[in-house]
Amino acid sequence: MLQTRFTKLVGVEHPIVQGGMQWVGRAELVAAVANAGALGFITALTQPTPEDLTREIARCRDLTDKPFGVNLTILPAIKPPPYAEYRAAIIESGIKVVETAGNKPQEHVDEFKKHGVKVVHKCTSVRHALSAERMGVDAISIDGFECAGHPGEDDTPGLILIPAAANKIRIPMIASGGFADARGLVAALALGADGINMGTRFMATKESPIHQLIKEKIVANDERETELIFRTMRNTSRVAKNAISSKVVAMEKEGAKFEDIRELVAGARGKMVYATGDSDEGIWSAGQVQGLIQDIPSCAELVSRIVREAEAIIRGRLEEMIVHPQREAAE
């Protein structure tokens, strides 16, 4: 068993997190992750209304008695969702850990802290992590350039970003972006993190509420099957490479503005990918870590395998590399 500052903070067995994923972070996946001894997050804005979120939290409680959390992502929008109402639904449902992401979450952090809720803030740079620490969050989830979704605009991969953040952050930190197996967990711990966050890897599990054909597509894809869209708009997003993402990238190179591509990247089309299994139906998120995903296990199988193999790497492969000259001389 691997115990870290993060497992102690949130009261879970294993230093593995399934972060918020739009259209994917639903009760059946989150409960399976929780039952496996890891920490899962329901995605608040996947639920159409705060009342729906309250019902989804209750549904998850019916499926597990272990700790789980809710993700609340705050993004600029023409018509913003009622964030305060979603926040109230989270608090009133007795959730004890929240993952925030996006714009400065100070108002939300203050309100959550008032009610004894632990806050894990997702960020893509050391400066944003330090800002979140000053705001009073309890832990950081730091996203390297490899990640699915928004990697920020600095293009800093995890191998640099994680230790750079560990040098300056005092609170527990989860490493995110590019993690799928035991090797990644051990590497993250060695780089100074207190655990790992996995998104794309948890999409390809038995309990993941997306179409089987998309799970199989993730397994079939290699590390090159992603594309960076919205680069020209300084709102970069890493998505699975398909006919639509390639078209968006080509249009951006020709100077297209958001209005020109709005219909192609509509969230409703992306949602249909997971419902129909047609990987070219719309834009959908996936990380470069697809190149490390070879199967579709249950969440319990996945988590136990990662922890078991991580312990074997630490006790076996790494320990064997340490040479003790005095001991060898004595022998």
From TrEMBL:
Keyword annotations: Flavoprotein, FMN, Monooxygenase, Oxidoreductase
Signal peptide from the UniProt entry: none
Keyword Oxidoreductase carried by entry: yes
Alphabetized CDD domains for the sequence: NPD_like (cd04730)
Pfam families linked: NMO
PANTHER family: 2-NITROPROPANE DIOXYGENASE (PTHR32332), 2-NITROPROPANE DIOXYGENASE-LIKE PROTEIN (PTHR32332:SF20)
Name the record gives this protein: Nitronate monooxygenase
Organism for this UniProt entry: Bradyrhizobium diversitatis
